[in-house]
Each structure stands twice: as C-alpha cells, then as structure tokens.
C-alpha cells in the first residue's frame, strides 16, 4: 500500500491529539496500516503540539523535513513554521483563525500577516485550502470542535486512505458522547468548506 | 473497566507506546509497580494508577526513583512480579540501589522500565542508559515499535526469572509517545501475595557475601549472553554483503530506507533488541558474511564499540561505520531521511535527494515558548522575590518542574540547574563562596524527591541561604501526579497518609520558617524580606493550588480582571514584571483576555494606578 504522510500542527489545547486519535481509530477499523507519533511535552503551557501520521507500508513513526504529503495546520503562523516538513507536491490545509503567541501579544515579535502566510504557502506547495475553522466550529455549536472541522476538510481532499464513513464512525467512538452531534456537524461543515 | 485490563486477547487496539508497555506488563501478571513521574515515561504509571483501583495491582508513586526501586526489589524478592518505571535521569537516582540489587538478584520477575529522551524533548540531558547495563551487569531489552513493546514485556519478566536478575527495558521517546495498532495477548492472573525466605548469606551485602555475589553475577552474565544470541529479539533479515546493525526506533528508519533505496537484495540487517549483553557469537557470524558494515544507533556508539571489538576478536578486517563527522552524530534523534542519506553514502548508492522548499522569504515567526500558565502562583512568588530583593546581588538556583520556566525574563528566576534537588545543594555551595544572597527555588514534589537531604545539609553546616518551596499541592509538570504532601482526600482517594512540609522543615531544625499565600503580594514580599534578611537557613513555603489542577477539579477560581482604560497610565508594570499570558496589546494599550484570566488578582496588586479591576459579570 502506498505511503501517505500527514503532519498536524496545533497549539496546546486545540485538540490535535484527539484528531489524531480519530484518524488512528478510523485506520484501525479500516485495516489501514498506520503509525503515529506526537510531541506534546509542554503543550499545556502554551507550546506547540505536533503529530505525525504515516499511513500505508512504512515502519517509521515520524516524518522527515520535506516529506509530508499533507500538512494540516490548526493555526496559521504555526502552519508557516511547519512548512519545512512540506515539498512542492504537498497539500496544506490551514485554519485561518490566528492565536497570537504571547510574545507577539505583548509586542515582542510580530505576528505575520495572514494574507502573506497564505500567499507564501500557496506559492510553495501544490495546493492550499484555507478555512476559518473557528467560525465553522461555532456554527456547529461548539467552539472546541475546530479539530473536527479540520478533519472534515482533510477528509474532503481524498488524500488519506480513509473514507468519510470510517472517520464519522471513529468520531462517534473516540469523542465524548455529549459532543457527538456537534462534532459530526463540525466535520460536515469542514468537508463542505474544503470542497467549496 | 480500564481498557487495558479487559480480557480481550486477539483484539487489536490503537495504543500509545506507554499504554502498550502497561498492557504488556499486565499480560505478564504484574502485581506490584512503583515510580517517580518523569516524561517520557509518565503515562505508563498514570495507567497503573487508574488500574490499581480496579484490580489487584498494587501501584505507588514513590518519593524518588531510588525508593521506587527499593520497594519493588523487596516485592520481587518476596516472589511477586514487580516493575519500576522511570525516565533516563531517574536511573541516576536509582543507580545506588540498582548496582547492588544486581548482585542480590530477584526471586520473581522485576522489570526496570527506563525511558531515554534523545533530543531532550522534556529533559535536561540525553544520556544513553544502555551503559547502565554494562555498569550494573543487568540485561537490557530494546523494542523498536509500539506493538513490539507490548510483546517484549512478558518476555522481560520471564528473562528476569530465568536469570534471577532485574531486567532493564529501555525505550526512547519515539516509542513511548508513538501510537500504533497493538495485538493484545492473554492476561496471566497476578500473584499478589509473596513469601520471603530468609537467606542472609545471599541477601545481606556485607563484603564477604558480596564477593560471592559478584562471582555469581558474572556467571549470570555469561548465561545472559547465550540467551541474547538465542533471543528472537536479536534477529537477522536479508542476505546481501552489506551489513547494517540497528537497535530501537532506528530499525524502522533503516527498514524503510533499505526499501526506498532498492537495496534489499544487497543488505542484511541485524536488529538488536537484546542489547546487554550484546549477542557476541551471533554478531561475529553476521560480520563474517559482510563486506562492509554500518551501525545505526541514536545516542552513544554503544553497539559500535562492541562490534569493532568483536571484529577484532574474529580476526576480521572490514569497514565498520557508525559515529563519525560525515556519518551519524552522537547528538539528538535520527529521522528517516537522514538515515536513508547516510546508508546511501556509506554503501555508495545513488540517492535522489528530495528538493527542499526555498523558505528564505518566510518572515520571522514569533516564537511560542512554553510559559507559566495564566494565574500560576509561581509567577506571583517569583515576582515577590524579585521585589523583596530589589537592588540586592542575588544568585537563584532553580530546580526541575514547571517553575523552571520562570528562568525566562522578566521573572529571571533561575541561574543554575543540574538535576532534581540540585537547587538546595548548589545553593549551599554558592552561599559559601559568594557574597551574593542565595535564594533557591524548589517545587513540593521535587522537595520530597531529593530536596530534603540538601536542606538537612544546609541546616547542619549553617549555610546562609533562603529556600523557597513552591508548593502547588501536586506534581504539575508531568501531569498532576500526587506526592507525600498531597491531601489525597481532596482527590477522592482513601487510605493515604500526608506529610506536612512545614512540620518537616521545622523538624529538620530550620531556624526561620514562614508560609505565604503568593496571591497576596504585599504580605508575601514582607515575609520574603524577613526571610532573606535572616542570617542562616530560612525556608519560605509558598502555598497555592496549581491553577490547571484547580480547574480540572472544578474548584472555584476567581472572576477575571480587566484593564480600566480611564485609569491605566500605560506603565506596563504588569507586562514588564509579571508577563502573564492573559495580557495582550491592542492599540498600544495592555488588555486582559478574560477567557484566559483566572482572577488571581496579582496584576491588580502590581498596577500602580489600580487600573486593573474585576470584570463585573462572573465568567
């Protein structure tokens, strides 16, 4: 089976690890080989959380610079920072809702212009899909469903070897029951936004 | 029931490496486990802590790794399968017990799980603990994947019982924090009650006994080398003249690279999973069939040194590559592309390198360093110390925990740090040779772990220093594990005792002890000034719940604050001295993000204009 390499970057608290768990569970249910690794050390204290998911016949659980097929960025500046993982064939999906790092929030460092971020990514990679995942999550009924919106967008690209239904089933199995409905709605909104 | 306790052999679950380790141990009939929390190993123990409530497993958070190994050594010598979990630097603490436990050995299986951290994702160094196998004479097993680590645990317990020795299972972060499908095995019911057979001439290590025990340890090592050669965890695949010897997570990078480069037919791979003692005879036979060999191992040239020696013993002259300026580094962790590139270079295979993106036009992106949380009481304590020592020459040793993050400006609360408990011991030394006032910081859990002996030293030698104990009633850094100072009834847990830090410090004989509530800035500064002015040892205990834990326990936190634009004169003391992440700038004025603010009110007390006021509505 061909190898597909996916990097997810987020700021601590955005639900990156839960999104990865959904993908892993969907892969298990679909009998798609998958290996995942995560760096989450100090994430609760405002740091970056990075997950790597390798689908298909490879054994390495991490992804080297320049070798990601897909980058999903939960935060625009962090997506730009993670661009070294990408190459000219990479598809990039970004949430355009910015979370200023504290350094920029207090005026020590400049947060890059959102249009510049998108222009730079689009100019270097094969495809850029931008969506305001935070707004779509609110629309779905839960601001915390940003991760599900982005999973929806990822699903719409058809780049990972997991079908829509298996992802929905995994969302039902992995996320809290009380949020199942809003999570699935967020997933749908993400799918639509990415195909629009 | 806990997902890892379920009797569902044959099923496949997606597990984190640390969950797979816990599951493997349960399958092996683990009955007794102890640890001191440390990342990347923390989730193993977190799972045992939960499981212990639902099964016969005994689990404890011990005060440090040495104690954890001592309690498990006793259990294993009473015939109960036991496990001791630690991160790599924890093994330095446990080493005193471990070195002689290797002489004494065990009756039932004892596995020492040690998680190394190449690249130091959450550690102060990247020591390669395989050398502890050589140093102690204990066997080491090194799995390469999440699924294999589940399998290797029962084998480790069996090996421990065969050799009557503790067995070290060594992982690295990329095993502990990887997730993959894990095929579950049968669970052996644990034997929880032991039986201790007195045998002082083998179990009490006075010199006359130890002389015999050392002889026995070396015999067991010889036996272990035979087992290492036979072990299914030391396997060879492929047949070609190019040899690659590899261990741990790097095995995956090598397997992928050999396939990507299309050199499967030229290459034979020796995967070392039982790495102490190294499988000497098997490796010699392997080397005999190779024209050229490459050793791929993160960290130190542990295998490479052995392989070079084995080649010499076998009278073989062949190129052996490993650590070298143009090959592999002793620094940091490896990755698939790097391993592929080095393999291609060593065996002279054509490699089409990936074309990296030109990122020269990407603007500088502001860093996102981890920070003390909004409302963290340590920020208030550091601020109060800075106020209390204004104009004073000071040295401030810090210790291991969240509060280490206070070393960044503007708090600058940390001048020296080497290991757990070092702030107290090094504080003693600084105070002796410097005229500067020494103020050491240590967290509550770290204090119990290894701060107490340093403090006793300070009292006995009458060092002139102040120790600030940052007591947030938990081990926050690694995920809120308990320690002996925690009131477990607050966590809904019965059957625990509790040690009062204040009574303990007074009991040691510290002549000046005060307790502060760091959110009360004025009183804290006054108490600190008094403590710092005291000649001799003074201790200030700063008590306030960790805000993250308070929130997760649904404890009431205060209402958020806001900046009143009428009163604010833009002095920015709040940002310049406190730097709470709830602050942000808008139109060149400081604002507070109400969704982050926990209402600790420290900034309100710091503002000279009293411009920071509570928001009227409750969150």
From TrEMBL, chain A:
The keyword Iron does not apply. Residues 12-191 form the Pyruvate/ketoisovalerate oxidoreductase catalytic domain. Keywords: Oxidoreductase, Pyruvate. InterPro entries: IorB_Oxidoreductase, Pyrv/ketoisovalerate_OxRed_cat, Pyrv_flavodox_OxRed_cen. It comes from the Bacteria. Its EC number is 1.2.7.8. The keyword ATP-binding does not apply. Gene3D superfamilies: Pyruvate-ferredoxin oxidoreductase, PFOR, domain III (3.40.920.10). One of its GO terms (molecular function) is indolepyruvate ferredoxin oxidoreductase activity. PANTHER family: INDOLEPYRUVATE OXIDOREDUCTASE SUBUNIT IORB. This is Indolepyruvate ferredoxin oxidoreductase beta subunit. It comes from Desulfosalsimonas propionicica.
From TrEMBL, chain B:
InterPro entries: 4Fe4S_Fe-S-bd (IPR017896), 4Fe4S_Fe_S_CS (IPR017900), HACL1-like (IPR045025), IorA (IPR017721), Pyrv_Fd/Flavodoxin_OxRdtase_N (IPR002880), THDP-binding (IPR029061), TPP_enzyme_TPP-bd (IPR011766), Transketo_C/PFOR_II (IPR009014). Catalyzes the ferredoxin-dependent oxidative decarboxylation of arylpyruvates. Residues 588-617 form the 4Fe-4S ferredoxin-type domain. Its EC number is 1.2.7.8. PROSITE patterns: 4FE4S_FER_1, 4FE4S_FER_2. It is an enzyme of class 1 (oxidoreductase). Heterodimer of the IorA and IorB subunits. Its cofactor is [4Fe-4S] cluster. It comes from the Bacteria. Keywords: 4Fe-4S, Electron transport, Iron, Iron-sulfur, Metal-binding, Oxidoreductase, Pyruvate, Transport. This is Indolepyruvate oxidoreductase subunit IorA. One of its GO terms (molecular function) is thiamine pyrophosphate binding. NCBIfam families: IOR_alpha. It catalyses: indole-3-pyruvate + 2 oxidized [2Fe-2S]-[ferredoxin] + CoA = (indol-3-yl)acetyl-CoA + 2 reduced [2Fe-2S]-[ferredoxin] + CO2 + H(+). One of its GO terms (biological process) is small molecule metabolic process. It comes from Desulfosalsimonas propionicica. Binds 2 [4Fe-4S] clusters. In this family the first cluster has a non-standard and varying [4Fe-4S] binding motif CX(2)CX(2)CX(4-5)CP.
């Amino acid at each position: 089976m061909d190898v597909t390499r996916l990097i997810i970057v987020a700021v601590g608290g955005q639900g990156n690890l839960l999104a990865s768990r959904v993908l892993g569970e969907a892969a298990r249910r679909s009998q798609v080989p998958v290996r995942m690794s995560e760096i989450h050390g100090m994430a609760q204290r405002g740091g970056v959380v990075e997950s790597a998911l390798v689908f298909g016949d490879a054994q390495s659980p991490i992804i080297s610079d320049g070798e990601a097929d897909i980058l999903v960025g939960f935060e625009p500046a962090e997506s730009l920072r993670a661009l070294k993982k990408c190459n000219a064939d990479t598809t990039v999906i970004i949430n355009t809702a910015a979370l200023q790092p504290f350094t920029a929030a207090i005026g020590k460092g400049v947060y890059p212009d959102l249009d510049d971020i998108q222009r730079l990514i689009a100019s270097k990679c094969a495809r850029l899909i931008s969506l305001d995942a935070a707004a779509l999550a609110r629309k779905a009924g839960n601001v915390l469903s940003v991760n599900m919106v982005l999973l929806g967008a990822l699903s719409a690209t058809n780049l990972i070897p997991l079908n829509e239904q298996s992802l929905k089933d995994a969302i039902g199995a992995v996320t809290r029951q009380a949020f199942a409905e809003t999570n699935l709605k967020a997933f749908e909104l993400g799918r639509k936004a990415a195909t629009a | 029931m806990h997902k890892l306790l379920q009797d569902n052999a044959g099923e496949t679950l997606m597990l984190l490496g640390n969950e797979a380790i816990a599951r493997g141990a349960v399958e092996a009939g683990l009955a007794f486990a102890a640890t001191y929390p440390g990342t990347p190993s923390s989730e193993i123990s977190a799972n045992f802590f939960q499981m212990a409530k639902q099964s016969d497993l005994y689990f404890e958070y011990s005060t440090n790794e040495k104690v954890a190994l001592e309690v498990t050594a006793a259990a294993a010598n009473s015939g109960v399968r036991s496990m001791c979990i630690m991160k790599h630097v924890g093994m330095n603490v446990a080493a005193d017990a471990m070195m002689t436990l290797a002489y004494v050995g065990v009756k039932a299986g004892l596995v020492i799980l040690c998680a190394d951290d190449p690249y130091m994702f959450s550690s102060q160094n990247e020591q390669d603990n395989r050398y502890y196998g050589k140093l102690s004479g204990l066997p080491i097993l090194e799995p390469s994947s999440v699924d294999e680590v589940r399998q290797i645990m029962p084998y480790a317990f069996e090996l421990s019982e065969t050799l009557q020795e503790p067995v070290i299972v060594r992982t690295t972060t990329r095993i502990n924090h990887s997730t993959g499908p894990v095929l579950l095995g049968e669970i052996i019911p644990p034997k929880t009650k032991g039986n201790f057979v007195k045998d002082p001439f083998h179990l009490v290590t006075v010199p006359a006994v130890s002389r015999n025990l050392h002889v026995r340890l070396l015999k067991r090592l010889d036996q272990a080398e035979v087992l290492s050669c036979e072990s299914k965890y030391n396997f060879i695949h492929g047949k070609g003249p190019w040899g690659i010897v590899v261990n741990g997570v790097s095995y995956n990078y090598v397997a992928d690279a050999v396939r990507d480069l299309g050199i499967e037919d030229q290459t034979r791979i020796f995967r070392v999973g039982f790495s102490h003692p190294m499988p000497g005879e098997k490796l010699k036979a392997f080397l005999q069939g190779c024209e050229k060999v490459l050793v791929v191992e993160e960290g130190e040239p542990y295998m490479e040194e052995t392989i070079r020696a084995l080649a010499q013993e076998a009278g073989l002259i062949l190129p052996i590559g490993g650590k070298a300026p143009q090959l592999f580094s002793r620094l940091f962790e490896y990755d698939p592309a790097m391993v592929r590139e080095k393999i291609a270079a060593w065996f002279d295979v054509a490699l089409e390198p990936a074309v990296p993106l030109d990122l020269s036009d990407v603007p500088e992106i502001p860093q996102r360093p981890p920070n003390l949380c909004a409302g963290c009481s340590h920020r208030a304590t550091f601020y109060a110390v800075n106020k209390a020592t204004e104009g004073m020459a000071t040295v401030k040793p810090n210790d291991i925990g969240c509060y280490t993050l206070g070393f960044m400006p503007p708090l600058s609360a940390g001048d020296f740090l080497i290991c757990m408990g070092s702030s107290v011991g090094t504080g003693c030394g600084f105070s002796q040779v410097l005229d500067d006032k020494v103020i050491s910081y240590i967290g509550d859990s770290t204090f119990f772990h290894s701060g107490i002996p340093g403090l006793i030293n300070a009292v006995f030698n009458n060092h002139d220093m102040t120790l600030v104990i940052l007591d947030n009633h938990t081990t926050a850094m690694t995920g809120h594990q308990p320690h002996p100072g925690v009131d477990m009834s607050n966590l809904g847990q019965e059957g625990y005792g509790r040690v009062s830090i204040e009574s303990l410090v007074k009991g040691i004989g510290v002549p000046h002890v005060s307790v502060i509530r760091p959110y009360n800035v004025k009183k804290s500064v006054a108490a600190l000034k008094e403590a710092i002015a005291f000649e001799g040892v003074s201790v200030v205990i700063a008590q306030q719940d960790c805000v993250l834990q308070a929130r997760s326990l649904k404890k009431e936190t205060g209402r958020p604050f806001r900046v009143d634009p009428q009163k604010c004169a833009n002095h920015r003391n709040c940002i310049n001295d406190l730097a709470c992440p709830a602050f942000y700038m808008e139109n060149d004025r400081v604002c507070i993000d109400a969704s982050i603010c926990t209402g600790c009110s420290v900034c309100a007390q710091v503002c000279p204009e009293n411009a920071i006021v509570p928001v009227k509505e409750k969150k």
